[in-house]
């Protein structure tokens, strides 16, 4: 059950989010401009000029002049976003389980946030493919607007809180990469992204990792191990959840038990017992909902005997998952939950390409011309790094996640010609400064 519950918990933590609180992210450190969030009408947006220098902040009225939709998406928009995001969550988990073993856990909203920021700089087929994976019922404007509305509606209390932070790093060396001002402005406006310009060396590696550690409350100590020489931008999301159970476990409800792992091996584990009030059942699984203090819940689904969690995930999509929760019955259920702690790291290039985002990773086909310019070369996504951590105990749950989208320079594609030496040919060894053949000959038979 350790793996069985671990697979579904992140979708539960990040998708069962309702309420009307307001999310205010602080910009810290080396942002190019601090974003003022005192009220919507007077909101200002950090911007960068086309040459990379700072310019005056952009107001919300000016954003409307750019034909960016700034009002909240409304109930219908959030319903579409909820359904699309649930589909993305289940599909991403299913595809990740195709290649990864052990305690697989993802944060769909962390991956969604980082990749949606990235998609804002994509054009043509590259953007279309990304949207087909991230939100097939939405265009780019709708997805941006819906993510912003959902973030603004998250509940933040001492008893339960989801915090999301975004940041973009690009190099000081303008010849290496010059971001487009409109892309940075949209990222700041819709995602509250901190915009940071820095030398792409060891110092930016430390800066990104320190930022990630801070925004995940220490749960993800670092997201990057290195900064490759062809990297030109990092788009980072950090997510953290901390929630206390509405009804915590007592000392008497925790005792030693036996947990049978995926290999059939029996191991001792601390098991927590409780009686909950929401029961889930379908033809392939049973489960329950255990609420945190405010606005969030833990969901567990146990496949029937003989069915693996991976096989069960293959029977679900996002709408089916949401229906299970909507149709859950109000009845008492005795549950036993292991106390556990797990962490997970994955690079998602193959996962996302298999889901339909192939062009974004292909140097010859990727189109991120809306993001910026890198001399005569193009750019593509080189890595999508995702890390998660979760701890479930008697008092509640702590979970953290970080996603880094790394953009790299690509050589411009050139026409390719073929020369196949499969018949007699002339050959020579020449001296380069004069092109004098030092050796020259004909090969009629290589045998």
Describe the overall structure:
The chain has 447 residues and is of the alpha+beta class. The chain has helices at 2-15, 60-65, 74-99, 108-119, 124-134, 140-152, 181-191, 202-215, 309-313, 318-326, 349-355, and strands at 44-45, 58-59, 160-171, 178-179, 194-198, 231-244, 254-260, 266-282, 285-291, 297-303, 329-338, 340-347, 372-373, 378-392, 396-410, 425-431, 436-443. Strand 9 (285-291) and strand 10 form a beta hairpin. The longest helix has 26 residues, at 74-99.
Task: Please name the defining characteristics of this protein.
alpha+beta, six-stranded mixed β-sheet, five-stranded antiparallel β-sheet, 11 helices, 17 strands, 31% strand
The poorly predicted ranges are: 1-72
Strands of the biggest beta sheet: in what spatial order?
A: 5-3-6-15-14-12
**Sheet with the most strands, sense and barrel status:** 6 strands, mixed
How much helicity do the residues have?
A: 25-40%
Short description:
The protein is 29% helix and 31% strand. By secondary structure, it is an alpha+beta fold.
What secondary-structure arrangement, pairings included, does this model have?
Blueprint: H1 2-15, E1 44-45, E2 58-59, H2 60-65, H3 74-99, H4 108-119, H5 124-134, H6 140-152, E3 160-171, E4 178-179, H7 181-191, E5 194-198, H8 202-215, E6 231-244, E7 254-260, E8 266-282, E9 285-291, E10 297-303, H9 309-313, H10 318-326, E11 329-338, E12 340-347, H11 349-355, E13 372-373, E14 378-392, E15 396-410, E16 425-431, E17 436-443
Parallel strand pairs: 3-5
Antiparallel strand pairs: 1-2, 3-6, 4-13, 6-15, 7-8, 8-9, 8-11, 9-10, 12-14, 14-15, 16-17
